[in-house]
Amino acid sequence: QGTLELLVLKTLSWGPMHGYGIASWIESATGDVLRVEEGSLYPALYRMVRKGWIRGEMGTSENNRRAKYYHLTAEGRRQFREQTSGWQRFASAVNQAVTTTRAPSWAR
Predict the structure, then answer these.
(1) DSSP 8-class letter at 60
(2) For 69-96, what is the HEC assignment?
(3) Which of 8, 29, 65, 90 qualifies as a FRET site for 17, CA 20 to 30 Å off?
(4) What is the model's pLDDT at position 1?
(5) Distance of alpha carbon 70 from the chain centroid
(6) Confidence at residue 2, expressed as pLDDT on a 0 to 100 scale
(7) Between vectors from CA 12 to CA 20 and to CA 31, what angle results, nearest 5°?
(8) Which pLDDT tens digits describe the chain residue by residue (108 residues)?
């Protein structure tokens, strides 16, 4: 849940986008490693609207269809900075643990 929210915030840091575009960018940016299903994306978007991180407004998509476009709010930009910092600390700690060559004392 938190990772998807961070990726949505990152996507919207580039500018307003509709749900399909958000999912497409995440998939593209991760080399198609992360696939975002509608059943995960839309609940996350609604949750983020309720938290005040993003807002949605109707617009017209590239193929001339009505779509809801999501925009970052000031709180969303703050959350993006905060969560990015937290994610970087977390990823660094996990990387440190999985790449260490120092065995625990009980394994010697």
Answers:
(1) E
(2) EEEECHHHHHHHHHHHHHHHHHHHHHHH
(3) 90
(4) 59
(5) 13
(6) 80
(7) 60
(8) 589 999 999 999 999 999 999 999 999 999 999 999 999 999 999 999 999 999 999 999 888 999 999 999 999 999 999 999 999 999 999 999 999 999 998 987
102's tokens: 């120092």
Structure tokens at 81: 């900075």
Only one residue has tokens 């593209």, namely: 28
Characterize 47-81 residue by residue with b for buried, 16 or more Cβ atoms within 10 angstroms of its Cβ, and e for exposed.
ebbeeebbebeeeeeeeeeebbbbebbeebeebbe
pLDDT at 62: 85
Find how far residue 8's CA is from the centre of its chain.
3
DSSP category for residue 16: -
Q: Which residues lie closer than 8 Å to 44 by C-beta, 6 or more apart?
A: 1, 4, 5, 8
